[in-house]
Specification:
Radius of gyration: 24 Å
Mean pLDDT: 74
Organism: Heterotrigona itama
Number of helices: 3
Low-confidence stretches: none
Helix content: 40-55%
Distance between the termini: 49 Å
Number of strands: 3
Shape: rod-shaped
Pfam family, one: zf-RING_11
Number of domains: 2
Strand content: 5-15%
Transmembrane segments: 6-23
GO molecular function: zinc ion binding
Order of helices and strands: HHEEEH
Largest sheet: 3 strands, antiparallel
Protein name: RING-type domain-containing protein
Length: 87
């Protein structure tokens, strides 16, 4: 019966490995998808009292960018943040 126990353990390890590779890499894929956002140029100043969340300077200038989530930042600030973020 020692061979039966070995086979059972081997099958268990194999199944655990497969489950890890299917679901364990999900966090990495989610982070990669998050960093693949696109920006669009913000052309009309609706509310001039808004501030860039990164540098805390007014967003009155035309270098304002809006992400798909509709958060607004200065173009230079969001590009610098993206380049410094791990991913």
């Amino acid at each position: 019966m020692p061979n039966g126990t070995f086979v059972t353990v081997l099958i268990g390890v194999t199944v655990a490995t497969v489950i890890y590779f299917i679901f364990g890499n999900n966090k990495q894929r989610t982070q990669q998808q998050y960093y693949q956002y696109s920006t669009k140029r913000y052309s009309e100043p609706e509310n001039t009292n808004k501030e860039c969340s990164i540098c805390l300077v007014s967003l009155r200038c035309k270098e304002r960018y809006m992400l798909p989530c509709e958060h607004e930042f200065h173009k230079g600030c969001i590009e610098k943040w993206k380049n410094q973020s791990p991913g």
